[in-house]
């Protein structure tokens, strides 16, 4: 499979309405976004995650901008869109193509594991009920493995 095809897999796509690629219907995705509390929940998730990144000796130097705020905003908008919220991410950035957008960075097993550690803490801190906790976590863990681009 080419990187281009990989970049289009649902794990990192925006799953636009009517694309027919997703496991669940658009209505179910929208209800997931709403069921977990909408935008404030995704903002809390990403804020907690980036608080961890800010102190991480491996991850922090990977971020090109001095201010992590814009990177946090991009991840927040992507995740909101992925889970059925507004499509603000793609309106501003176009198709996610996340593997392609991570190509300039060395995402090896160590970087992936550090990313997963901070995200695990952030997801746990939300205290979501099941099945939402597991759905969110399983997706993020899978997506992190999928983003590795360096042995
Ligand atoms: C596996 C370890 C990962 C590492 C080390 C990593 C690192 C990075 C870095 C350094 C950036 C550039 C910061 C910026 O300017 O936006 C970035 C961007 C981004 N990452 Fe990751 N990332 C990882 C996994 C993921 C995963 C699993 C997702 C999605 C579930 C994700 C979503 C994003 C998004 C949406 C952007 C902004 C893309 C854009 O619009 O330019 N990343 N990541």
Automatic annotation (TrEMBL):
InterPro entries: GlbO/GLB3-like (IPR044203), Globin-like_sf (IPR009050), Globin/Proto (IPR012292), Hemoglobin_trunc (IPR001486). The keyword Cytoplasm does not apply. Residues 1-24 are annotated as: Disordered. It comes from the Bacteria. GO terms for molecular function: heme binding; metal ion binding; oxygen binding; oxygen carrier activity. The keyword Lipoprotein does not apply. Keywords: Heme, Iron, Metal-binding, Transport. Heme binds at residue 145. Pfam families: Bac_globin (PF01152). Belongs to the truncated hemoglobin family. Group II subfamily. This is Globin. It comes from Spirilliplanes yamanashiensis.
């Amino acid at each position: 499979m080419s990187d281009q095809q990989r970049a289009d897999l649902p794990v990192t796509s925006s799953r636009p309405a009517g694309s027919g690629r997703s496991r669940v219907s658009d209505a179910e995705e929208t209800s997931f976004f709403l069921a977990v509390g909408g935008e404030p929940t995704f903002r809390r998730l990403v804020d907690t995650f980036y608080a961890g990144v800010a102190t991480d000796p491996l991850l922090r130097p990977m971020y090109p901008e001095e201010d992590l705020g814009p990177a946090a905003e991009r991840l927040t908008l992507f995740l909101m869109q992925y889970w059925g919220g507004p499509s603000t991410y793609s309106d501003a950035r176009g198709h996610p193509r996340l593997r392609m957008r991570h190509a300039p960075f060395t995402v090896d097993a160590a970087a992936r594991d550090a990313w997963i550690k901070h995200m695990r803490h952030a997801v746990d801190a939300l205290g979501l009920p099941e099945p939402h906790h597991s759905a969110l976590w399983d997706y993020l863990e899978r997506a992190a493995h999928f983003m590795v681009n360096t042995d």
